[in-house]
Amino acid sequence: MNNFKPENTVRPRRSVLCVPAINDRALQKLPDLDCDAVIFDLEDSVAVDAKQAAREALERFFEKTPLVGRETIIRINSLDSAFGSDDLQTVLRCGPDAVLLPKVDQPSDIHDISDILSEKDGAETMRIWAMIETPRGVLNAAAISEAAHTPDSRLSAFVVGLNDLRKETGVPNLPGRTYLVPWLMQIVLAARAYGLDVIDSVSNDFRDLNAYAHECEQGRAMGFDGKMLIHPAQIAAANQHFAPSPEALDEARSIVDAFAAPEAAGLNIINANGRMIERLHVTGAEKLLRMAQAIDARKAENP
Fold first, then answer.
1. Is residue 215 within 8 Å of residue 203, measured between CB atoms?
2. pLDDT grade, residue 1 (50/70/90)?
3. What is the tens place of the pLDDT at every residue in 89-138?
4. Cβ(53)–Cβ(23) below 8 Å
């Protein structure tokens, strides 16, 4: 039986901090950090012999430390691994906003876990995020994204994983991500075609904040909603670059106001301050304004 209740609100995902579930010190710092979302990692950043300890630490954290105003996501190991089933039980006990699946290659990866969650009490609003980090994942991004349009879909966002993609393709880690840009844009396009959010990959050198800021600018220009982070020092730049700019908000308000005027009733195209604006732009303008409101609301909850 499908008991999923989709979420209809806009959520800021500018800064998505990834924290190893085994790192108690990092976990305890989270309530004071200004990130929009936290990925609690049970996968790559946790050694094989520490998996159970990481699950136990995560359950203690969720029991004692609610993260007000932040979206919570737990990244599990693949369900076909030796750890995935136990990881999923931890997810169900913790009750995060979403579960993040690693190395998603095909739509069935989404459907399989969606079917499992639909049979579990307490998972009525839990969503699925998907790591796109393999050649097959990139090639199948559109088909995976289309899985979001099934009646029982929980798929909410893509997260790009360039470290694994570089390893499998041999593409070097060059400044500007020159040879990776076509794949990044392909993932963005697939996400947008079916209404998913899409989060840019981590920047590994958290000490070079200038290079990181340029990568945030690039990701924003590509159309990403935010960036996956590995260090708190990266939060401020992500929040700045992936937030709607004051100029964009002013333009959005002017578009909404222009079409709300009585003389615009029934018109699909209007002349506003010497520019031709179509009614279809109202939807995007309204979404941008809702995002700004959501960011302000998160700041109020977690000042």
1. yes
2. very low
3. 999 999 999 999 999 999 999 999 999 999 888 888 999 999 999 999 99
4. no
Confidence class for position 165, pLDDT limits 50, 70, 90? very high
CA 208 to CA 231: how far, in whole Å?
12
Residue 59 burial (10 A CB sphere; 0-12, 13-18, 19+): middle
Per-residue tokens: 224: 């990403």
Asked whether the beta carbons of 16 and 228 are under 8 A apart, the reply is yes
What pLDDT does residue 105 have? 97
**φ, ψ at 132 (rounded to 5°):** -105, 105
| Residue closest to 197 by CA, chosen among 80, 97, 279, 297 | 97
Asked whether 217 and 178 are in contact (CB, 8 A), the reply is no
Q: What is the pTM of this model?
A: 0.92
Q: What is the DSSP string of the chain?
A: --------S----SEEEEEETT-HHHHHHGGG---SEEEEESSTTS-GGGHHHHHHHHHHHHHH---TT-EEEEEPPPTTSSSHHHHHHHHHHH--SEEEESS--SHHHHHHHHHHHHTSTT-TT-EEEEEE-SHHHHHTHHHHHHGGGSTT--EEEEEE-HHHHHHHH-----GGGGGGHHHHHHHHHHHHHTT-EEEEPP-S-TT-HHHHHHHHHHHHHHT-SEEEESSGGGHHHHHHHTSPPHHHHHHHHHHHHHHHSGGGTT-SEEEETTEEEETHHHHHHHHHHHHHHHHHHHHHH--
